[in-house]
Specification:
The chain is α+β, with helices and mostly antiparallel strands. Helix content is 16%, strand content 40%. The radius of gyration is 24 Å and the shape is flat.
């Protein structure tokens, strides 16, 4: 009887150990159970890292791509050398084999050189099927907005997976040394800040979307 009891106890202990080991292994993988549900056990913060973002100012202004659509038009307008897009580009890397969906919230802050008024542009873009490795994402502010509201003085991005923020970065005006996330920091501008919607667009929804197509993920 004692031997049988010991054998049963040993088997139970071995079974418990195998369950614990399996749980420890599964905690190290990303669980992909549908779009937006890529989440490792614990936190997703180790799954994505920002490597670089564009620096605000004139160095981030780019001309429209030279795309010849062969379309007849009544005339051509020369916009001049100051007709530039503001390009906020984010380079990042991911560690899981695949992530179903990653959401980028882009922020661009411009300042009117004459009125000194600040103008905030914001958009959120969901990218699909992110494979392990290096990637790039970009948002564009049209030349009309840049010319009317001023050059960009700050860029920021907040990246989230399944509703959890996994990476943030900001450059330029409003970056807080007190570890205050950038959107909260620029609230101090008060009435000097005007918010605009509908201007800032993912790169794929601008003329740039037909260039270097393979370097960017598909968007929802």
């Amino acid at each position: 009887m004692a031997i049988r009891t010991f054998t049963t106890t040993a088997r139970a202990a071995a079974l418990a150990a195998s369950i614990l080991f399996a749980g420890a292994v599964s905690a190290q993988v990303v669980r992909n159970v549908g779009p937006g549900a890529a989440r490792p056990a614990g936190s997703t913060k180790a799954t994505l890292r920002i490597k670089d973002i564009s620096k605000p100012g004139k160095q981030s202004l780019v001309s429209s791509p030279d795309v010849d659509g062969k379309v007849k038009a009544p005339g051509h307008i020369n916009r001049g050398q100051n007709w530039k897009w503001a390009m906020l580009e984010v380079k990042y890397e991911t560690s899981p084999d695949w992530i179903d969906e990653v959401t980028f919230t882009f922020y661009v802050l411009c300042q009117d050189a004459k009125t000194k008024q600040f103008h905030l542009f914001q958009t959120a873009v969901a990218y699909l099927d992110i494979e392990k490795g290096d990637h790039v994402a970009a948002a564009m502010l049209p030349p009309n907005a840049v010319k009317r509201y001023g050059d960009p003085v700050s860029y920021a991005v907040d990246i989230s997976i399944d509703g959890e923020s996994v990476a943030q970065e900001a450059l330029g005006l409003g970056v807080s040394k007190a570890n205050l996330w950038w959107p909260a920091s620029i609230e101090k501008l008060g009435e000097r800040l005007t918010r605009h919607s509908g201007y800032l667009q993912d790169r794929s929804k601008t003329p740039f979307g037909v260039t270097h197509v393979d370097e960017y993920e598909a968007v929802r």
